[in-house]
Write a structure and sequence with these properties.
189 residues; mainly beta; eight-stranded antiparallel β-sheet; 30% strand; globular
């Protein structure tokens, strides 16, 4: 399944939490088939990038936090209209994250990550990692891949058996073709 088809299947955004299986047999789970040639995406081929059958985080029983996305000063030109909300739910089953966005460039690929600091601190600081000495790839990091739909909007939910605790206070979105440009950030509160 290619990235565009995955986004279409999920009606917008695909999100990955660290700990999600890097290989999976679920035909409905969006996969990243060919990330080579995209800045910072080498080695991500075949990783699960969303869970279209998951219950949205704002409907999960447990400790639910949410935040509004704000466009960052490092956003690429034309990103001023990006807006949306993110939810992070934690319970005995692990972690569930849902994001909903509008105002993105239509049919454009993005990558998002849970971050280790609040948005006001260096635009989210470094990526959240379950093990600070571990890999910079899933399942140790929480990667979120998505493609905006024809209207520049979308939604996706993923679940993870691990709890992020309070170590992931924000989520940051980057354009896939310019990973150094942090487009928008949402603090979970």
């Amino acid at each position: 399944m290619n990235l565009r088809r995955a986004a279409t299947t999920t009606a917008a955004l695909s999100l990955v939490l660290a700990g999600a299986a890097c290989a999976n047999d679920d035909p409905d789970m969006p996969m990243m088939d060919d990330m080579s040639g995209m800045d910072g995406m080498d080695g991500m081929d075949g990783m699960a990038m969303g869970d279209p059958g998951a219950t949205p985080a704002d409907e999960v029983d447990g400790d639910v936090t949410s935040g509004e996305f704000s466009v960052l000063d490092t956003a690429p030109p034309g990103s001023d209209g990006a807006a949306g909300q993110a939810w992070l739910a934690q319970n005995d089953d692990g972690t569930t994250v849902t994001i909903r966005l509008t105002g993105l460039a239509p049919d454009t690929a993005y990558m998002a990550h849970l971050h280790a600091e609040a948005c006001a601190s260096d635009n989210g600081g470094p990526h959240f990692m379950f093990d600070l000495d571990g890999s910079e790839m899933p399942p140790n990091e929480v990667h979120l891949a998505f493609t905006a739909d024809d209207d520049g909007a979308g939604e996706v939910t993923v679940t993870n058996e691990q709890r992020v605790g309070d170590g992931a206070p924000s989520v940051v979105i980057h354009p896939t073709d310019a990973m150094d440009n942090r487009l928008a950030c949402a603090d979970f509160s």
